[in-house]
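As noted in the main text, all predictions were made from sequence alone. Below is one such record, for Integral membrane protein.
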Amino acid sequence: MSPVVVVLLLFAGLSEAAGRILPFLVRRPGTSWQAVVGLLMTGGLIEAAVFALWPLTAWTLADVVLSTPSPGDVLVWTPGLVAPLVLSAVLAFPLLGPLLHLLLVVGVGAGLVSPLATATGLGWWGAAGCVAVAGAGLGVAVAAVRRLVGQLTAVEVREVVA
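Prediction:
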């Protein structure tokens, strides 16, 4: 991965984390800025890692579907493919348009389909299914981790208050 792609993925992850953390912070006034920065950095790195794993996960699913090794190179992000992802992450703020954010993520996924189909020899619809399943699977995994962390921190807050 080129340094430009890494920076774009980190920016997308940080923006996505900010969109997820800001509503949380509104419900908890008085949170220290060190905690906010820590949450943003941790969340941003996790989101960036999930974004970086999306093409690799789709590639792996395509290999499972084909049941033979793919003839092409592994699918990776390029600056052209990752730029719409950065835009969708910027628009991830819940009040600025979750539907638009979803549409942009679907558009980014559609942008991954053609390179995956070309690299693996899988048809367009098969590649689209692999990209969709990979994106949904990663999204569900991150949502589960978010929910678990939220429940754990809520328990800690109740114990401190009680």
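Residues 77 and 123 are 20 Å apart (CA to CA). The chain has one domain: 3-161. These features were considered when defining construct boundaries for the mutagenesis experiments described in Section 2.9.
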